[in-house]
């Protein structure tokens, strides 16, 4: 024989009840003999409690709630039963609803809702649902009996959370089932005293009912049907890649449930555990899935741990003082005082010096606990032997649970290291000698992130790297193409999945925690109704409390550059194609560099030379102890193309127009021709050498007169350039006469920085530059006679996007 129990979510409406009935009928075909326990229809218990509360307050609102309750049960009966006996069934339900009406009217008249009356009131949920479901079985041709568990389960009179008399209950259950051949549909949650007064079994009461009856009958298995595929490794609302556990021991299940996991409650497991009866957790909405078995033995050795659970909000009380060291009885007085006040302690952490004891309790008890502890130790506090109680709020507890941790070295270290790598501070720690559970107190605001960090560390599932992209123009769009092509290889080689969680352009923004379809990212963004605001974008990123978050800036916006510091301070990595931050105010640049020296990264290799490893090379030289003597560079791919192509075959203005048409220039070519792009790049390189410098410290000689760079349109600007074609041709010819070429070169040496159009001869490394190539020539103490030369394409959407992807990969390579 087996017992099946179905919770409120499984019987939320008539369609779900029909599915449950089908599950039970299939189980009957396999197991022959079963009994079924049901909870109230979903939401009914809450409606009953609220109706009782309103009635006790003298409010007529209870009548509206009562009508909702009546309608839901009548509608369920109408949808579930088509039998010729429908009218008889309806009379039974009407009679019970009238009884409920009379009870609530009595509460309304006397304006009192005692625990005893509340239990009686709540019992209507299970009594109505089970009666209707019994009728449904009979209507389907399954012989079924309605079984009121109050006749079987006997308790004390501790209303709302009654203690079961197992001896009397077991006798009742055995006698009742002795000659029963029909399917028994049993009310969960409710019970009664020896005087037949209705009681309830408290939290998880319907599960407890199934366990009590199953243990009394020595069944083969107890099945708890719910709305998930079993016990999950973590709360799926917080850890999206959590997955079902195949097997748990009773002890593991109890530990997880104590710390808030969605598992059956410890009282439920006790009767089954005594009789060594397995408890299987199954999903009503996925009945073919095997679910999780909770039993005496742990048979799943795939992972070191079984699950991670949490208590979302706790407070810490710290009791400490010199008078506590070596004094017997302090702990007894402390715990005794709290116990006498009915305050439950969730976690205890004590220093070996005995100087301090930390207690975690629910926040609602904080003020009361502090007061009674200070009253208990009033004289010690007065004499300075014990300090005033310190209270810390807005905290959470994480519990890492698993029998496989026993006698296995390194588990605690693995937990603490994973948190440390993500700058998550642990406030208090507790681990029992059984090694079954490591519990930690952390800041509540880091809870979701911490759960994900630990889950990835132990279960080695897919590491999700969450990207927040600003800018989906040429570079941003190409980056999305690269990510699309790279996804499979990343997953195969590094167990990493890139997840686009946020995307924005200058007008709109879009967020989806589950991930935005990369292939259609741009079109989805353009359909977004959410207007772009930098504050809103930052808040969405910061509140996305998971690990491995990377913000990628493919814009040229100063406003976007200004948010980097806040992101870094909140643990979000930043990858920037935008030069504005690294080339802006030096103090801001220094703050960004300083904060990114730890686990959070600020990477901006594409700021100079697109995909060329220029910044990385200089950084490596400095870190090795080398000294930068000078830098000479062609740093604009656009200007490089222009002067490399200026050989007399075309006019200067025609080459600029050609570069614009090929996408080598900015939409407004003035942004390239004014030399500011080169200045920013040189400024960044000098700063990377450790030099304090601002943009105004660099001398920049423009290749065109200042008057050209006015506020006229792009077309007008292009026409103005034509006026200087002859001048440039004359300069070119003069250079060619000496076998020289024109190059716009950035220079730094002896603390002097300059950008100027120069002629170079065959001996210069810049002489043979072609197309959009950039070149950086670095002289150092170690590379003096033969300088380091870095050369390659310095412009183009593809190489820049590839450079951004390289920076993203540097962060990914540090994961784990």
Report the uncertain regions.
none
Work out the strand percent.
15-25%
Strand arrangement across the biggest beta sheet: 3-4-2-1-7-9-10-8
Report on the biggest sheet.
Answer: 8 strands, mixed
Q: First CA to last CA: what distance?
A: 48 Å
Structural class: alpha/beta
Shape: elongated
Helical coverage, percent range: 40-55%
Q: How many β-strand stretches?
A: 28
Mean pLDDT figure = 90
Radius of gyration: 36 Å
The helix tally amounts to 28
Q: What is the topological layout?
A:
Elements (H helix, E strand, L loop, with lengths): L1 E5 L7 H18 L2 E5 L5 H13 L4 H20 L5 H25 L4 H25 L4 E4 L18 H12 L5 E5 L2 E3 L5 E3 L4 H12 L4 E6 L20 E3 H9 L7 H9 L4 E5 L8 E4 L11 E14 L9 H11 L6 E4 L5 E6 L4 H11 L1 H5 L7 E12 L9 H11 L6 E4 L5 E7 L3 H13 L3 E8 L3 H21 L1 E9 L4 E3 L9 H6 L7 H9 L6 E5 L4 H4 L2 H6 L3 E4 L9 H10 L6 E2 L10 H10 L4 E7 L2 H9 L6 H10 L8 H4 L2 H13 L10 E2 L13 H8 L3 H13 L3 E9 L2 E9 L12 E8 L7 E6 L3 H16 L4
Parallel strand pairs: 1-2, 1-7, 2-4, 3-4, 7-9, 8-10, 17-18, 17-20, 20-21, 21-22, 24-26
Antiparallel strand pairs: 5-6, 9-10, 11-13, 11-14, 12-13, 14-16, 15-16, 18-19, 23-25, 23-27, 25-26, 27-28
Helix pairs in contact: 1-3, 2-3, 2-4, 2-5, 3-4, 3-5, 4-5, 6-7, 7-9, 10-11, 13-14, 15-28, 22-23
């Amino acid at each position: 024989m087996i017992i099946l129990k179905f919770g409120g979510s499984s019987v939320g409406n008539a369609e779900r009840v029909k599915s449950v009935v089908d599950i039970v009928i299939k189980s009957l075909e396999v197991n022959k003999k079963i009994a079924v326990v049901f909870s109230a229809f979903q939401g009914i218990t809450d409606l009953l409690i609220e109706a009782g509360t309103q009635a006790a307050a003298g409010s007529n609102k209870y009548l509206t709630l009562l009508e909702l309750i009546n309608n839901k049960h009548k509608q369920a009966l109408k949808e579930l039963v088509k039998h010729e006996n429908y009218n008889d069934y309806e009379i039974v339900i009407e009679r019970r609803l009238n009884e409920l009406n009379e009870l609530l009217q009595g509460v309304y008249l006397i304006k009192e809702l005692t625990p005893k009356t509340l239990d009686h009131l709540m019992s209507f949920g299970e009594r109505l649902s089970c009666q209707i479901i019994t009728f449904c079985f009979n209507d389907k041709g399954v012989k079924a009996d309605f079984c009121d568990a109050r006749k079987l389960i006997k308790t004390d009179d501790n209303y709302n959370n009654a203690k079961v008399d197992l001896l009397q209950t077991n006798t009742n259950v055995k006698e009742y089932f002795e000659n029963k051949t029909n399917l028994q549909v049993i009310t969960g949650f409710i019970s009664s005293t020896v005087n037949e007064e209705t009681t309830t079994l408290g939290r998880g009461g319907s599960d407890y009912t199934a366990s009590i009856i199953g243990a009394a009958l020595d069944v083969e298995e107890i099945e708890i049907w719910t709305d998930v595929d079993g016990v999950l490794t973590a709360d799926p609302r917080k850890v999206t890649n959590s997955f079902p556990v195949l097997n748990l021991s009773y002890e593991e299940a109890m530990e997880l449930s104590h710390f808030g996991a969605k598992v059956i409650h410890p009282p439920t497991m006790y009767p089954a555990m005594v009789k060594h009866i397995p408890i299987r957790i199954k999903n009503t909405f996925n009945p073919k899935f095997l679910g999780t078995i909770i039993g005496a033995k742990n048979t799943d050795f795939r992972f070191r741990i079984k699950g991670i659970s949490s208590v979302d909000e706790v407070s810490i009380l710290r009791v400490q003082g010199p008078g506590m060291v070596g004094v017997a009885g302090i702990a007894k007085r402390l715990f005794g005082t709290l116990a006498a006040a009915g305050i439950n302690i969730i976690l205890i952490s004590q220093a070996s010096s005995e100087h301090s004891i930390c207690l975690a309790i629910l926040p609602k008890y904080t003020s009361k606990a502090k007061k009674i502890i200070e009253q208990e130790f009033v004289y010690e506090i007065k004499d300075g032997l014990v300090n005033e109680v310190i209270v810390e709020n807005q905290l959470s507890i994480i519990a890492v649970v698993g029998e496989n941790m026993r006698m296995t070295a390194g588990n605690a270290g693995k937990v603490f290291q994973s948190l440390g790598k993500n700058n998550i501070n642990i406030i208090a720690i507790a681990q029992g000698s059984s090694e079954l559970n490591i519990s930690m107190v952390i800041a509540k605001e880091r809870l979701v992130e911490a759960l994900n960090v630990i889950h990835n560390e132990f279960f080695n599932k897919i590491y999700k790297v969450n990207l927040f992209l600003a800018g989906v123009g040429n570079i941003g769009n190409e980056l999305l193409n690269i990510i699309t092509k790279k996804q499979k290889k990343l997953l195969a080689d590094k167990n990493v999945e890139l997840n686009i969680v946020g995307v924005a352009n200058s007008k709109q923004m879009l967020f989806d925690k589950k991930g935005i379809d990369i292939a259609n990212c741009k079109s989805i963004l353009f359909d977004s109704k959410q207007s772009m605001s930098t504050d809103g974008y930052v808040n969405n990123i910061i509140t996305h409390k998971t690990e491995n978050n990377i913000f990628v800036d493919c814009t040229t916006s100063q406003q976007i550059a200004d948010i980097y510091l806040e992101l870094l301070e909140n643990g979000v990595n930043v990858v920037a194609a935008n030069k504005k931050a690294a080339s802006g105010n030096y103090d801001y640049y220094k703050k960004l560099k300083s904060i990114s020296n730890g686990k959070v990264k600020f990477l901006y290799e594409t700021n100079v030379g697109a995909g060329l490893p220029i910044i990385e090379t200089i950084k490596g030289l400095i870190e090795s102890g080398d000294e930068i003597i000078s830098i000479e560079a062609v740093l604009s791919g656009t200007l490089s193309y222009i002067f490399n192509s200026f050989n007399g075959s075309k006019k200067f203005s025609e080459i600029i127009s050609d570069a614009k048409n090929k996408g080598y220039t900015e939409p407004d070519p003035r942004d390239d021709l004014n030399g500011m792009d080169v200045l920013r790049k040189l400024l960044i390189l000098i700063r990377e050498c450790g030099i304090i410098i601002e943009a105004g410290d660099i001398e920049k000689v423009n290749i065109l007169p200042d008057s050209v760079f006015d506020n006229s349109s792009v077309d007008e600007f292009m026409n103005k350039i034509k006026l200087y074609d002859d001048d440039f041709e004359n300069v070119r010819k003069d250079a060619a006469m000496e076998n020289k070429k024109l190059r716009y070169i950035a220079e730094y040496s002896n603390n002097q920085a300059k950008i100027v159009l120069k002629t170079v001869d065959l001996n210069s490394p810049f002489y043979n530059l072609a197309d959009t190539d950039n070149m950086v020539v670095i002289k150092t103490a170690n590379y003096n006679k033969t300088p380091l030369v870095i050369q390659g394409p310095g412009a183009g959407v593809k190489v820049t996007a590839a450079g951004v992807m390289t920076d993203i990969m540097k962060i990914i390579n540090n994961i784990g």
